[in-house]
Amino acid sequence: MLGLVTRCTHGVVMNSRWVAKSLNFNKNYEASVFETTIRVIGGLLSAYDLSDDKVFLEKARDIADRLLPAWNTPSGIPYNIINLRYGDARNPRWTGGKSILADAGSEQLEFIALSQRTNDPKYQQKVEYVIEELHKTFPADGLLPIYIDPHTGITSYSKISFGAMGDSFYEYLLKAWIQGNKTESVTHYREMWETSMKGLKSLIRKTTPSSYAYICEKTGSSLSDKMDELACFAPGMLALGSTGYGPDEAEKFLSLAEELAWTCYNFYQTTPTKLAGENYYFPAGQDMTVGTSWSILRPETVESLFYLWRLTGNKTYQEWGWNIFQAFEKNSRVDTGYSGLKDVSSGEKDNMMQSFFLAETLKYLYLLFSPPSFISLDEWVFNTEAHPLRIATRHANGETYSTIGQDRLQERFHGRKGRSGSN
């Protein structure tokens, strides 16, 4: 383990040279505000927190400044696409000009962290205003449709989902509370999250005959017996959030997390390749059937296994993770990496490896078999792209004290740099 961490730290040092000399965001390119935030800004800030090398912070600020015009809308709800050179922002045509909930509501961790590290409040102000606007009309069940009008800030009549286009909004409500070290100044995030979890519980159904628990989707008052593999982040989120409840409620939420994780694990186990499809349906009298049958090496199930193992110590979750990894090895491994599958029944490969397979899927599998003290959940919070950010205490006056575990982390990493340099 120590040797692996040494090499990881040495890799951060090596990458800082490339970042300083070659990484250039001044491109005539239309980028997803959300994807750029969670992947690029999140990755750069994580590298900064791990190395204390300011080149990563400078580059994070550069790309964040290029994204900021996306928030210049009448409501403060950001557009989802922006040109990195010219700052022209818009929404995709296929959304009907609407902003996507998971996109607009999942930049908080990164922009808050950037304000904390740079002592510049403008980034935090932009993303927290979004939450303030959503809070004004937050429904009693805490469930928001996936489309929001960026001109009015009002949600549109559309699907409610813990899968595609809804998922990480709920994740970030919880994690913004954790990121602020659960102080009074971030209580509103926790309160909104708990309201949403009441809504989530209203969407839970169970199959016949095996009683698999699943999360329905909802449009208006109608429920759909469909669950995306993307929604398999929810067991981990529920387990992580359960610790903020009293003993009785905590036990109930942890139990629900374990039930949903069992369902998600069986998304894998019930196919010939032992890899999960993109989504599943739950017809009356049947346990589950694959809907969209491709697999693009998604991380959500192993993410939840990681959290459940860390929070319960139950090695069953390690066994499940190992079985999933073995299925990747058998069906997806090729000479140059890992390929997704066009069909989880036939095993036909799609000849593509998504970047999140390295950033998330393999990272969570690695952490699933790492000591709990390594990237401790008491000191770090993971963004939705699995980039760890240090927890920093927030206070009512906006003052932020030193991040949790910073001195201890730097002491360890500085020592490792010396050892790796002598190899």
UniProtKB/TrEMBL annotation:
Signal peptide: none annotated. Disulfide bonds join C232-C264. It holds the Pfam family Glyco_hydro_47. GO terms for cellular component: endomembrane system; membrane. The keyword Manganese does not apply. Ca(2+) binds at T384. Its cofactor is Ca(2+). GO terms for molecular function: calcium ion binding; mannosyl-oligosaccharide 1,2-alpha-mannosidase activity. The lineage of its organism: Eukaryota, Viridiplantae, Streptophyta, Embryophyta, Tracheophyta. Coiled coil: none annotated. Its EC number is 3.2.1.-. Keywords: Calcium, Disulfide bond, Glycosidase, Hydrolase, Metal-binding. This is alpha-1,2-Mannosidase. Belongs to the glycosyl hydrolase 47 family.
